[in-house]
From TrEMBL:
The keyword ATP-binding does not apply. The lineage of its organism: Bacteria, Bacillati, Actinomycetota, Actinomycetes, Micrococcales. It comes from Knoellia subterranea KCTC 19937. This is Zn-dependent hydrolase. One of its GO terms (cellular component) is cytoplasm. InterPro entries: Metallo-B-lactamas, RibonucZ/Hydroxyglut_hydro.
Length: 369
């Protein structure tokens, strides 16, 4: 015989246990807070005022979307925002030091860039969810095509900003453990997160915009972006950035997360041209033009920095916006053809040689759309 009160109590105990389990890693995942000399250096940045970082060239464009409309779209568009089949992955071993410049998109904004003999890993996220807890939050739409332990030796990990879909505690801790020679190159303030997670201070380079460091012969320059930061309720306590990766021969630009702004043209003038641009094209919305580019703006950004070809990133892996799953790439191709720029769309895990790019994007996503 079932006693309703006991059943409810048992369910309550189960829920409480789940909540405790889900919440246990959250305080650590939120990272550290800058103090001392780190905080003093942040306060000296031209991008810092009134206790936080700011977009100095911010252009506000109000949203036309109502709350009711957002709820309707969230419900009605649910299936469109997921692939209908398994995303095709490439699971081939990656050579450690190929000649020239090679790019391997591993999903979302995680990219392995092999440039002039150096290996640079951008925004590594290997966790199943981009969240402070692996019990809740946006879940992967496809597996990571290569395990962290199977990567070639990584000279530098470069982080664009501290949101959970770009700065993943589990991946950072594992990389720091597996690769004691790896350096972490990050915007101002993010070193506090890394140190809390066990990365030694002498392996961290924290940069303001237009500051640079050199790792394994590759020049890494933090360049402007128009975004925001934060891993909890407070925002903008760490800086966000786009990045220039420049070897003796190859040169790659990575946009990070950003709205479209005049800074791209300025980056092109100061640091361009580039062989290839890795550009954020997904997770856009009418209400977010200042923080995430539309596909059309992504194409324009690649042209602004002086790249003849772009690889779209920040799409296909996590459901972070209202638009259909494959809409970003289809819009990119239309705009790129109109504007006369090349587009390469590798499958997750597929390495491309920047000197010998395929003539067609392959259209692999259409088989699962």
């Amino acid at each position: 015989m079932k006693i309703p009160g006991l059943a409810i109590a048992a369910g309550g105990v189960g829920l409480a246990a789940w909540l405790v389990r889900a919440g246990r890693p959250v305080p650590e995942a939120m990272g550290g807070r800058a103090t001392g000399t780190r905080a003093a250096r942040m306060a000296e940045s031209p991008e810092w005022s009134n206790g936080k970082f700011h977009n100095q060239q911010l252009r506000f464009e109000p949203s036309s979307r109502s709350l009711a409309g957002s709820v309707r779209e969230l419900v009605a568009g649910r299936q469109e925002r997921h692939p209908v089949g398994d995303v095709p992955l490439v699971r081939e071993p990656l050579d450690a030091r190929p000649e020239g410049t090679h790019v391997t998109w591993l999903g979302h904004s995680t990219v392995l860039v092999q440039i002039d003999g150096a290996v640079v890993l951008l925004d590594p996220v290997w966790s199943d969810r981009c969240s402070p807890s692996q019990q809740v939050g946006p879940k992967r739409l496809h597996p990571v095509p290569v395990e962290l332990r199977d990567l070639p030796p990584v000279d530098a990990v470069v982080i664009s900003h501290d949101h959970y879909d770009h700065l993943d505690m589990g991946s950072v801790k594992e990389l720091a453990r597996l690769r004691p020679e790896t350096r972490f190159v990050v915007p101002l303030g993010i070193g506090a997160h890394l140190e809390k997670w066990g990365v030694p201070a002498d392996r961290i380079d924290e940069l303001d915009w237009h500051e640079e460091t050199k790792v394994a012969g590759v020049r890494l320059v933090a360049t402007p972006a128009q975004h925001f930061s934060g891993r909890g309720l407070s925002r903008d306590g760490t800086l966000w950035a786009s990045w220039v990766l420049e070897g003796s021969i190859g040169k790659v630009f990575y946009s990070g997360d950003t709205g479209y702004f005049v800074g791209f043209a300025q980056i092109g003038e100061q640091y361009g041209p580039f062989d290839l641009a890795l550009v954020q094209v997904g997770a856009y919305d009418d209400g977010w033009p200042t923080i995430h580019m539309t596909p059309e703006h992504g194409v324009e950004a690649a042209l602004d920095v002086g790249a003849p070809v772009m690889v779209p990133v920040h799409w296909a892996t996590f459901n972070l916006a209202f638009h259909p799953w494959a809409e970003p790439i289809e819009r990119v191709l239309v705009e790129a053809e109109r504007r006369g720029i090349g587009v390469s769309v590798p499958r997750p895990g597929e390495r491309i040689d920047v000197a010998s790019l395929p003539a067609e994007p392959g259209f692999w996503w259409r088989s699962v759309t």
